[in-house]
């Protein structure tokens, strides 16, 4: 978890010439959903109410946004370790051809301790070839060929999700049953199977089916407890 | 790639009581970005211009959306093989607790050949406990604890992305049990439960646990056949 916090601390999100205030808000909200805090706006549109409205509880990120007139001024001032460009047109007509990374590859490549700046381009035209040329890496979300142009903040949410995909779930009381609990279940089931009149090889098949299903079903500790009680009673009734 | 096309064909996206037309459009666009086509709206707000505007080139998906008055009517009419609920609050206060899957786990679990319906809830309140109770599985995007509530269409885009990330499907010759086959299994189980000596409310809990597990475990037709035979013999032995 410490690595994820360091990562969140060291990533800056750069929105280059945003055209609609609402998208600045949507972007800020997606950032905060994944623990990101630093937003940089390059020559943005007016920050109208809509930006704060769509940000919801990420209003603080919009309010604290750093604003620069152009990308060069930002780079000179903040000296990023890595610039990551995003594009919806993989393999387009960039001067320097490069293979865009998938979001998962970006996640593997990023170092939590480096100052990484992720650039999102204008809603209409994306990043220019010159801007892409400044970047150390380019990332693209794999999409349907029929309609590859994503909403910019949807693409951002997917990239943020990938960067923080190893985050733990907080789901108290919903722990998966342990291997021990599951094996106790299977023992009960095997006993039950031994009480019914089927050939041994069919018993083995049935036992295996139970084992496979139990393995696949993400059974919680509480569910395993319920099941074990029921199986015990079935067994007793069959013996009785 | 054929498996991905089959997957896209067999997934339906259900938006339950959407409150703002813009979000219907954003959702349709995200669907089309990943090759999804079937949108179902349950008791939606008026489909104003904003819905079509935000859909951009996915206007056809909004125009072709199926509309139902409530979820039960939709289920009766379309008979989904799998209902997947989405929630931003993992480990809530559901009657029968279950572990929410991560989007990547959902992607691993889904069968391209089954009719899978993914439910997204109201922008403000999400899905109700009753609606979640109807689902075979629940999926949740892991987020920052500080601000876990995502924009609904951002969460949808992340889930769609995971479903169609480039991967091989391992599914040859392993058809999933049909809804009918599974419901026969559950009937056998309920009969068995009625034969053991436990209070009625515990019987109901146990029945629900079996239903949830069966829903989650992607039981093949062959496995269902084995299980049904075994359950029938258990029942007979208990009666005997």
TrEMBL record, chains A, B:
SUPFAM superfamilies per the UniProt record, alphabetical: alpha/beta knot (SSF75217)
Regions annotated as coiled coil: none
A Pfam match: SpoU_methylase
A cellular-component GO term for this protein: cytosol
Gene3D superfamilies linked: 3.40.1280.10
EC number in record: 2.1.1.-
Origin: domain of life: Archaea
Keywords on record: Methyltransferase, S-adenosyl-L-methionine, Transferase
InterPro entries according to UniProt: Alpha/beta_knot_MTases (IPR029028), RNA_MeTrfase_TrmJ/LasT (IPR004384), SpoU_MeTrfase (IPR001537), tRNA_m1G_MTases_N (IPR029026)
GO molecular function term, any single one: RNA methyltransferase activity
Broadest EC class assigned to this enzyme: transferase
GO biological process, one term: tRNA nucleoside ribose methylation
Family named by the database record: Belongs to the class IV-like SAM-binding methyltransferase superfamily. RNA methyltransferase TrmH family.
PANTHER family with a match to the protein in the record: TRNA (CYTIDINE_URIDINE-2'-O-)-METHYLTRANSFERASE TRMJ, TRNA/RRNA METHYLTRANSFERASE
Protein name: TrmJ/YjtD family RNA methyltransferase
């Amino acid at each position: 978890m410490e690595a994820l916090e360091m990562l969140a601390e060291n990533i800056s999100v750069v929105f280059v010439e945003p055209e609609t205030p609402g998208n600045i808000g949507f972007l800020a909200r997606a950032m905060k959903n994944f623990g990101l805090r630093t937003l940089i706006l390059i020559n943005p549109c007016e920050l109208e109410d809509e930006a704060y409205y769509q940000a919801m509880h990420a209003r603080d990120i919009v309010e604290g946004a750093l604003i620069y007139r152009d990308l060069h001024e930002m780079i000179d001032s903040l000296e990023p370790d890595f610039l990551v460009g995003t594009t919806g047109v993989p393999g387009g007509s960039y001067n320097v051809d490069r293979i865009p990374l998938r979001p998962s590859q970006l996640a593997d490549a990023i170092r939590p301790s480096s100052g990484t700046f992720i650039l999102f381009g204008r809603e209409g035209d994306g990043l220019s070839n010159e801007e892409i040329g400044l970047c150390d890496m380019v990332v693209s979300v794999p999409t349907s060929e029929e309609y590859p142009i994503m909403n910019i903040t949807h693409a951002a949410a997917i990239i943020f999700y990938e960067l923080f995909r190893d985050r733990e779930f907080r789901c108290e009381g919903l722990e998966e049953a342990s291997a021990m609990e599951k094996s106790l279940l299977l023992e009960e089931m095997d006993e039950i199977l031994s009480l019914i009149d089927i050939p041994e090889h069919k018993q083995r098949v049935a036992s295996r089916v139970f084992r496979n299903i139990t393995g696949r079903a993400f059974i919680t500790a509480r569910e395993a407890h319920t099941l074990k009680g029921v199986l015990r009673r079935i067994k007793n009734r069959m013996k009785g």
